Amino acid sequence: MTTDSTQPTETDARFAGLPARPGKIVAVHLSYDARAAQRGRRPASPSYFLKASSSVAASGGTVERPAGTELLAFEGEIALIIGAPARRVPLETAWDHVAWVTAANDLGLYDLRANDKGSNVRSKSGDGFTPIGPQLIDARAVDPAGLRVRTWVNGDLRQDDTTAGLIFPLAQFIADLSQHLTLETGDVILTGTPAGSSVIVPGDVVEVEVDAPATGATSGRLVTTVVDGPDVAYDATVGSLPAVDDTQREEAWGSRDAAGLPAMVAEPVEAPSLSPELREKLTRVPVAGLSQQLRKRGLNNVTIDGVRPLHPEQKLVGTAKTLRFVPGREDLFASHGGGYNAQKRAFDAVGDGEVIVIEARGEAGSGTLGDILAIRAHARGAAGVVTDGGVRDLDAVSAVGIPVYTVGAHPAVLGRKHVPWDHDITIACGGTTVQPGDVIVGDADGVIVIPPALAGEVADAALAQEDEDAWIAARVAEGHPVDGLFPMNAAWRARYEADHTPVGEPVEPQGPTS
């Protein structure tokens, strides 16, 4: 008996939303800014996993949640269908290899994630775990930067984002994958899900739609109903058993609150190297005195050169939180400069008493922060900001009141010269190496970096030196010559040891014994 090859048979009806059964399905892990912010990590480049083509299902079908499991989650996504084979294609022509766009639901069972180590083979390739369709959108008729994906659960809108919120443009997935393997006609790429993915239970109805608001083109709503699966007897002798913990629950539901878990309260911890007492001592010591003590200990390359304070009257004391910019490059700024980039993440995460130290290579040709980020740092309790780059909105930044050190003002935005690359790493600022947790002290003379292990010793020594210098200054003011007094010879040293006066207390005029 023959069948009409243009019509799906009962066996292949699950592929009704596609031109044919795909040879492979490639899925992207994290791709939307909103999802990356939710997960607390932002990839520098795309990463992928494979799904079995046997997991494809058509609109209107069901998906089983196996008995004994709890964390089946939906992920509304934009699916790309390859129309022409792609092998080592450049970014500029990669979109030409996409024939259609449609909706997909990248369903996953978190109970089976633990032992897959990111491959998602068991958790994502179950039968019916990749509904696709129902209608194909001609890729030639839409702007890939103007697509939208929305997901509803039982009629409530749960996900709503556009490709403007992607960390990587859609064409980059084609170009990147084609460097490593041939994308063949009919292959499907699932391009990742935005924030809002969460857990679904038997009885829930999930709908996903992809559309191009500018043209009205739409995939229609992809409908999937969750049902109870059979009581599967997983065999521990041949594979891993379903298992969940609070981490899996939090990621599946999207937040601890949604998962019904108690909030994790992080108690503020004062860095061991910068107790309140040490902070107070460092506030009293001038940077010049600290520099002198570090030099005595063999540390000469500890000043952040070329930066000046916006508020010379303010003292800066704190521990370093580092941020690194690399030289501007258009393709890298496209992948790293937008959305919730490293700069925004650093300013959102700065803690009480920390100093954001920025590596900008001494490049003053654009701003490295403006008033909004200065306000954010101030609101977070940051001790200040040090950048060997420029500052834009200088008057507004100054008005915030937080100590800021910079090479100068510049009106241009970050992207003119810089790409925000990474934070909480070892950096170079003003010709000096700075590590997260280093002690940063600044005054009108400049900024110095103190290794945490030496901070207490150096502070005490510098305060003692300040007492000594004040006593010497008083003697000079009385008319004594500096020869033999600065530095002190044995006679003056004996007098000082016997009768020196701490800083801040009056000194009675008296000369050395003869």
UniProtKB/TrEMBL annotation:
Give the domain of life: Bacteria
* Residues holding Mg(2+): D393
Can you tell me which residues bind substrate?
G370, D371, I372, L373, R392
- Which GO-annotated molecular functions does the record name? catalytic activity; metal ion binding
Tell me where in this chain the Fumarylacetoacetase-like C-terminal domain is found. 25-226
What are the protein's UniProt keywords?
Magnesium, Metal-binding
Which SUPFAM superfamilies is this protein grouped with? FAH (SSF56529), RraA-like (SSF89562)
Q: Which InterPro entries does the record associate with it? A: Fumarylacetoacetase-like_C, Fumarylacetoacetase_C_sf, RraA/RraA-like, RraA/RraA-like_sf
Please give the cofactor(s) recorded in the UniProt entry for this protein. Mg(2+)
Is DNA-binding found in the keyword set?
no
NCBIfam families xref list = PRK08245.1, PRK12764.1
Q: What is this protein called?
A: Fumarylacetoacetase-like C-terminal domain-containing protein
What organism is recorded for this protein?
A: Microbacterium aurum
